[in-house]
Amino acid sequence: MTLFLSLTSCIEIIDDLSISGDGSGTFKYHINLSSSKIKINSILALDSLDGKKVPSIAEIQSRADKIVKQLKEQNGITNVVFDANYTDFIFKVTCDFNNLNQLQSAIVNVIKSESKEKEMPELNHTWVSFSQNTLKRSVPQITIKKAQSINKNDSDLLKQGSYTSITRFEKEIERIENENANLSKNKKAVMIRTDPYSLTQNPHLLDNMIYLVKTTN
Amino acid sequence: MKSLLTSLAIFTAISGFSQLSEDLIPKQAVSVFSLNNINLLQKISLDDLVKYEFMEEVQQELFDGSTRGKTIKDLGINFDQKLNVFNGIGENYEVTGLTFGVDDRNKLFDIFDDYTPMKSNYPGVDFYISYFNRIAISGNIGILYRVTPNIEIVDKITDSIWYARGNEYPFYNYWDDYDYRYDDEEYIEYEGEEYYEEEEIEYLEEEEYNLTDEMEIEENTSAPKLFDEMPEATDDPNTKNYYELRDSIDMVLQELYLVEFSNELFINQNNLIKNAPDFRKQLSHDTEGIFYTDNSRNFGENSAFYKMKRYYPQLFTDIKELYTGNIMMGDLKIENEAIVLDLDVKYGEKLGSIYQKLTDTKFDKNVLKYIPENNSGFFTYNVNLREAYEQSLNVIKPILENESNRNISANLLALEIFDEFVNKDALFDTYKGSMFGVYSGIRKVKTEKLIFDYDEETFDYTEEWVESMEDMPIFTLGFSTDRNDIPSNIMKRLSKMTDKFQNKGDYWLIEDGMFNSVPMYLIMQNNLFIVTNDEDLAVNNAKGYGSASLSKSKAKFAQKSGVMYAYSDLGKAIETLPRELFSQQENEMLDVLRGKSGKVTLTSSATTKASTAFKLNYNFNGDFTNSGTYILDLINSLYVLSK
């Protein structure tokens, strides 16, 4: 899949995190490559590209199913739904989590299980935490490492894509630290949009501290 | 006294022998590019030179910074001598390298600074070594070469010693538990033995285990390409594991073959010139360079035919005989801002008879109606498949009849049944063999994409499909046919089964027929069956481009050409060709052409039983800056093609 992501000019990624008052929530991750389907299909028609084997749809499907199966087996993760459209190349994963620590552990476990690398200190990074009405978000270091490994020619293509990060709460938001972030009119959601290339150049672009309105009992 | 005389005789023989760079081209050479006028290359920077694919065999340890800012002129080579790049296959080893005249050894080894002198057992020949590469200098002629033992032999000896020592199967083999038959169509069976295609195994190995991270597989290390896990190192450091044993054998064999190679070249003076009269004759041509490939030896010695050689030895011998005399020879000339390659492909009688029948046909003028004047490139290909089929049958059937193997007999039986019962008139009238293709550059085509529409109140989003435009290379491929009624009937039936196939009168539309995203069009007109993604051709020009079709002056070249004609405007075509549509090998070839302008045409003569002549003209129309670069482009293309 990395092969396609790095060679696709118009990739759209959405990560959408909804957090309830008790710390549980829903995580959605969407990858939309529909605006590059001709290019992807032409790549899929090849045996290899730049010395790398091009997987078949069946191989991609099998790998994706395996990842989803592993995600379903993680502690504190429920209602995992994977929706894959191999005609237009749109992939959506949704899952519920009991708390953010379990969500992070689940993702780390799946990455470790799928990775060929034995040591990945980047996975020890805590990229989201929530306590005392404050949520801290950043981009996982593993994502930064992978993004930075994309060569310059491919990186140029990523400039045309988009990355949208949304964080939702049941309560209203009091303030946000990231100047690039937008607050929804109902004050319960924060959205930051950028392009994948900018993210590779500035991994802290999506970092944010979100302070919720304190409720008095 | 006797030994002194012998030594003197040898020395005299060697000194007198090595006066021309081509004299050191070894007899094992299968392909040779020989540049007569290397003055043309003087201005080319070494850093640019090493980017060419054909330099890959010799550049690995050589150009490691010592080349920076220097040109070929600084190499210390003699520009009055030919520069010969060769690639050879022997029975036990492969050898690659180049030969050249030496003008200044100090300059040469300033560049080749990784090389150190080594002891020479050959009077008058100095040797230098850098890892697995050698440079030998005899008089004022040098040869840079690498000898690589045949992998099959290394494996065979390793296995033999390994098991003779009482060792067990050295690998944990994941695939023992894997049933290939349900996994891939590449599964093949030979006489009860099961095999997996090697390429597939290599892929699986890398994908599933990433063994490349754990074991050395660089070209120099000789680590075998196996699909098994790396064997554990033994506890006893004095006992070699399988791979260590294998590396040792590889090293020993390499030394043996290096001696064999040197004896043959420096003592017996047995070079390619002595063994290949065609090559010798071609060297005398007064041209800028020559190209020579002996396909018959390529066929015989290439490891790709190892399985056929092993399991069907008689068939291998017979097929090899078919290729006897199949030699490609080319002359490279510079003519008024153009480089011309005259290529002569020679055949043995049997193979020649098939090619002659194959090309026994008239040019189909109908194709000219469908080639627009403003194309970026096109080709026409004229063959008579029916005649070629009948002649191939005449040649191949006796070969198969000689084979006692049951699989071959079964294949022969299938072939005979096919020949008797299939309606060959219908088959070959439908698909006659002649075809044409047009590349019309990149155009925007309509497609659909998903967008997310965000609600400002909540940032919830809804999905919406909208029209989108994507770049698409526009190709047209057409086949001559006398039976358009057959595909037409097929389309009629298919259109009843699904509305993806739509009859539009002059053409058929297949929805999402290309890359599952954009329409494809079928045109069945003028005794041609045309497949295209060019909407303009289908909708507006289904009966031909009329006055917008190829001009008569250009068309006559295609008509007069023999088996094939090709034309490409590099400036228009190469830059726009998407990398994704080509294999790695094709991209390697296209890469050196990217950024250059000019026009390339390929014409061919009528095919006789003995040969076909091709002429490649690379005209760079006033953009002439350094003809050496264009020559190297051509050499590189030929090298990549002959790999």
Strands side by side in the biggest sheet of chain A: 5-6-2-1-9-12-11
Query: How many structural domains are formed by the residues of chain A?
Result: 1
| Beta content of chain B | 25-35%
Name the chain pair with the biggest interface and residue counts per chain. A-B, 37 and 31 residues
Task: List the defining traits of the structure above.
A: 217 residues, alpha+beta, 7-stranded mixed β-sheet, 7 helices, disordered N terminus, B: 643 residues, 21-stranded antiparallel β-sheet, two-stranded antiparallel ribbon
Question: How do you describe this structure in short?
Answer:
The complex is a heterodimer of chains A (217) and B (643). Chain A has 217 residues and is of the alpha+beta class.
Explain this structure to me?
The complex is a heterodimer of chains A (217) and B (643). Chain A has helices spanning 2-7, 37-44, 57-72, 100-114, 141-148, 152-158, 196-201; strands spanning 12-19, 25-32, 48-49, 52-53, 77-85, 90-97, 128-131, 134-137, 162-169, 173-176, 182-183, 189-194, 208-212. With 217 residues, chain A is of the alpha+beta class. Chain A has one domain (2-212). In chain A, the strands form three sheets. A seven-stranded mixed beta sheet of chain A has the order 5-6-2-1-9-12-11. A four-stranded antiparallel beta sheet of chain A has the order 7-8-13-10. In chain A, a hairpin with a 2-residue loop joins strand 3 and strand 4. Residues 1-8 of chain A have low confidence and may be disordered. Chain B has 23 helices and 23 strands. Chain B has a 21-stranded antiparallel beta sheet that branches. A two-stranded antiparallel sheet of chain B has the order 9-10. Chain B starts with a helix and ends with a helix. Residues 1-18 and 173-230 of chain B have low confidence and may be disordered. Classes of the chains: A alpha+beta (217), B alpha+beta (643). Chains A and B meet through helix 2, strand 3, strand 9 and strand 12 of A and helix 6, strand 15 and strand 16 of B.
